[in-house]
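Batch manifest, entry 17 of 40.
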Amino acid sequence: MKIEFLGTGGAIPTPRPLCTCHICLEAKEKGVPYSRMGPSIFVHDLQLLIDTPEDIYQQVNRSTISEIKGVLYSHWHPDHVMGRRIIETISADWIQHPPKHKKVDVYLPEQVEKDFHTYLGSREHLTFFEWKGFAHTQIVHDGETLSLKGTTIFPFRLAEDYVYGFLFEQQDKRVLIVMDELNNWKPDPSLVGVDLAILPAGVFDIHPLTGERLLAEDHPVLEVEATFTETLEMIQELNAGRVILTHIEKVNGLSYRELKEVEIKLRALNIHVEFAYDTQMVTI
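Output type: structure tokens
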């Protein structure tokens, strides 16, 4: 299975617009891997895009992608859906008459489909794409699997039950992809030992190199977001062959260089994790 990290940032990209901190200035000067766009992943074997942040156009244009056959959504949050117009852009034929539109398959887990009716006009927008002939929407009900090109995809709810993780099974390989929202999640025993786990890094409330407290203990974000420390505990439970962390927020305040130092520090503790970077390609 060949996986490309299109964007490894979170709700706040790196560099953040108008920000002049050293992390953003370095990202502006050096670009990838110091810069990070919004959260999105592409599974090449399936020509499947997971989530469409606002900057998905730029991500796809700099990628190795030649065709997108499907889009899978993990949840309704703006940083994961607001670039959905790419479905129209890659599908519409504005030259020929009558037009010969392509049609992208859009896969919505059960709760995501419900939330799309409520938030951000997402379902109305997809309905427009269907009406125009740009998309075909398929709802994947809880407990069901999706089969694409010999790969089985099992969407499952996290503890924050409006969000889904995905287990990909291809021959003897198993890949777990969770795009966001690990708060209060406990890995199911069936997920233990996956070959690759892709997870959000979590909030750095404490600097992993200096021990400095970055967020107050009573900061409200800690009630709704998993911390990096909590993410590491989940990783220990998963016992995956390889772990790559993504959804790395600019507001966490760690540069690409510092994250590489964190990898080394954790390796000395026999905790093997990697921090993803934009354009990274992984084969499992």
